[in-house]
Q: What sequence folds into this?
């Protein structure tokens, strides 16, 4: 009877999440910067369709739910490489250390590079022969601990920087914006079997703004080789992508050799409609895993899949090699590889 009730509650919850996401139809796309913060780090997490804030247990928690960082036993090291859309590269790392009776500390970094792009101007719209690149960065320090035996809480303070790599005509400087932001998260073990609930708020902070002024070019005189410009104006501030996540996860099958985990997350964004992330993971003998996920109510993201190989490092600990494949429809697909060490 308990299994039937839990199954019915689960179906009701998932149906409710779908209905809630479908009801939010107004998308404020293009109103926030630092979009690289919305790219999921960690092949395990992405392979489950990003439905992971109640699943993560290692150093990658800093990118999803810092409340789960408290589950790190001793040392955890996470490294990830993402071959993003349009030859964009995204690399991530995090290192976590647990201190008994104090909590878990972590340092992390997220780095995006666009690669070389052609410089174009009003006069040379096919390119001037020069190149530039856009580079984004996030550096954070995190802390998490158990407040009770079932409830853990954590937070991150991080420095965000966007370098647009273009030269300001007025100052001769690169156009760079930076700001400090915060994440908070919590994880709660309900006590009913392995059912747990997670919640996180990411990228809470002030608006970003490029310093200095700019000029809009409205024309070019080929005879005098001069531009016609609008009067100089200040750059306008813009938001960073505030993300609110709430999710649940549970092992529906858990034996000595077979473990199946189901997870669902609701994601609210300040620059887009709400979406629902669904994921499943199957471990065999704690050695090999396969995963699948689905993102509902997203413009391009749909299905994802992946797998893991868990390797023993003798008395040192273990290493998990993870891979994920994400289908972005008209934008093609994205591959991610990551490795996590547990000592």
A:
């Amino acid at each position: 009877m308990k299994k039937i009730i839990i199954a019915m509650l689960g179906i009701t919850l998932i149906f409710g999440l779908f209905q809630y996401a479908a009801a939010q139809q107004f998308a404020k796309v293009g109103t926030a910067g630092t979009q690289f913060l919305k790219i999921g780090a960690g092949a395990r997490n992405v392979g489950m369709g990003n439905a992971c804030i109640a699943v993560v247990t290692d150093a990658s928690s800093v990118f999803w739910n810092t409340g789960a960082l408290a589950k790190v036993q001793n040392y955890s090291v996470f490294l990830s490489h993402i071959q993003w859309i349009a030859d964009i590269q995204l690399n991530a790392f995090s290192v976590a250390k647990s201190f008994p009776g104090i909590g878990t500390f972590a340092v992390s970094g997220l780095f995006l590079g666009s690669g070389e792009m052609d410089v174009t101007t009003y006069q040379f719209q096919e390119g001037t022969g020069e190149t530039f690149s856009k580079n984004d960065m996030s550096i954070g320090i995190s802390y998490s601990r158990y407040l009770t035996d079932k409830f853990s809480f954590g937070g991150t303070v991080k420095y965000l920087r966007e370098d647009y790599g273009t030269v300001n005509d007025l100052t001769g400087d690169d156009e760079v914006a930076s700001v400090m932001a915060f994440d908070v998260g919590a994880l709660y073990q309900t006590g009913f079997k392995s059912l747990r609930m997670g919640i996180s708020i990411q990228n809470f902070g002030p608006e970003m703004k490029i310093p200095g002024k700019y000029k809009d070019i409205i024309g070019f005189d080929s005879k005098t080789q001069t531009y016609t410009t609008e009067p100089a104006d200040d750059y306008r501030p813009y938001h960073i992508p505030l993300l609110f996540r709430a999710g649940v996860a549970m092992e529906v099958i858990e034996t000595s050799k077979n473990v199946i985990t189901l997870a669902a997350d609701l994601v609210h964004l300040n620059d887009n409609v709400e979406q629902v992330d669904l994921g499943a993971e199957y471990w065999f003998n704690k050695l090999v895993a396969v995963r699948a996920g689905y993102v509902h109510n997203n413009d391009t993201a749909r299905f994802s899949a992946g797998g893991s190989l868990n390797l023993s490092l003798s008395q040192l600990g273990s290493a998990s090699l993870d891979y994920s494949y994400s289908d972005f429809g008209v934008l093609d697909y994205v591959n991610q590889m990551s490795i996590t060490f547990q000592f």
Summary: The helical segments are 2-23, 43-47. The chain has one domain: 2-210+239-342. The longest helix spans residues 2-23.
